[in-house]
């Protein structure tokens, strides 16, 4: 069992996150990652019916309402009052969503700031339909932005007590849950310095370079919704009626055959 880094209380963490994303660096991060998220959810590989938006700062992660027929934005009690875009207040590790009911789930900087990111991914797998898609947005641990985070961690800044989630770890988790990673793109190929303004205003570079400050990972759930028939269940019950005898290779004589056979002296 992984030992996750202890996060600050929501009363401390949420204002710190909002303050950072409202600053020059945070605004530039959002400006570069939102087009990548929009591109990931607007392809033709998934149905455009239900989208579930889970974000640590939901008011800063708007999704175009014209892409999906129904969108739901869920958040914790700590988001209520600071954000007016929530449809439901809930626990991210126990989503009040029906099994296999969502076509796309967006995790916007969420896995880094929850108590157990693996539990959240298991919930996402539960609510996604087969061939549904999950889009994960997070801070790239191998970037200049993550180096800036190490300095903030030494200062005990609430914003930077986050979990460091490398791409390969997320790929392993998703593979175990039945997902196949299709696309990984990167944004914010900049030094996280707001002054001089050149660092925040120069032209973005290619989104496939892996040194960007944030990543957007898309993965598809490949699991058929199979239900065993009653006939097959009855047949299986007959086969496994005497499981203790399944490994026997010698024939067993009946009591009558044993009495007829000559006894050894």
Q: What would you say about this model in short?
A:
The protein has helices spanning 10-21, 24-41, 117-127, 144-154, 167-176, 198-201, 230-239, 255-260, and strands at residues 50-55, 70-75, 88-89, 102-108, 128-139, 179-187, 214-221. It is of the alpha/beta class. It has two domains: 10-221, Rossmann fold (3-Layer(aba) Sandwich), CATH 3.40.50.150; 230-260, no CATH class.
List keywords for this structure.
Rossmann fold; alpha/beta; 31% helix
How would you characterize this protein structure?
- The protein has a seven-stranded mixed beta sheet, with helices on both faces.
- It folds into two domains: 10-221, Vaccinia Virus protein VP39 (Rossmann fold), CATH 3.40.50; 230-260, no CATH class.
- The protein has helices spanning 10-21, 24-41, 117-127, 144-154, 167-176, 198-201, 230-239, 255-260, and strands at residues 50-55, 70-75, 88-89, 102-108, 128-139, 179-187, 214-221.
- Strand 4, helix 3 and strand 5 (128-139) form a beta-alpha-beta unit.
- With 265 residues, it is an alpha/beta fold.
- Helix content is 31%, strand content 19%.
- It contains eight helices and seven strands; from the N terminus they run ααββββαβααβαβαα.
- The radius of gyration is 26 Å and the shape is globular.
């Amino acid at each position: 069992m992984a030992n996750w880094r202890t996060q600050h209380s929501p009363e401390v963490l949420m204002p710190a996150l909002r303050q950072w994303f409202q600053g020059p660096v945070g605004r530039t991060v959002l400006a570069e990652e939102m087009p990548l998220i929009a591109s990931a959810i607007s392809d033709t590989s998934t149905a455009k019916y239900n989208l579930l938006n889970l974000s640590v700062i939901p008011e800063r992660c708007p999704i175009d309402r014209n892409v999906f027929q129904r969108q739901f934005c869920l958040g914790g009690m700590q988001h209520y009052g600071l954000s007016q875009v929530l449809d439901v207040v809930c626990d991210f590790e126990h989503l009040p969503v029906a099994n296999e009911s969502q076509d796309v789930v967006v995790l916007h900087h969420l896995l880094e700031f929850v108590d157990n990111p693996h539990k959240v991914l298991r919930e996402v797998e539960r609510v996604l339909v087969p061939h549904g898609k999950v889009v994960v947005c997070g801070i790239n641990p191998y970037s200049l932005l993550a180096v800036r985070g190490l300095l903030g961690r030494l200062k005990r800044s609430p914003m930077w007590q986050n979990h460091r989630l490398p791409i390969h770890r997320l790929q392993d988790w998703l593979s175990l849950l039945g997902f196949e990673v299709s696309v990984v793109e990167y944004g914010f190929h900049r030094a996280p310095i707001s002054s001089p303004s050149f660092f925040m205003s120069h032209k973005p570079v290619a989104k496939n370079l892996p040194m960007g400050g944030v990543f957007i990972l898309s993965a598809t759930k490949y699991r058929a919704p199979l239900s065993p028939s009653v006939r097959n269940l009855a047949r299986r019950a007959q086969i496994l009626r005497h499981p203790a005898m399944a490994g026997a290779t010698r024939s067993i004589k009946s009591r009558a055959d044993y009495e007829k056979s000559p006894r050894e002296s």
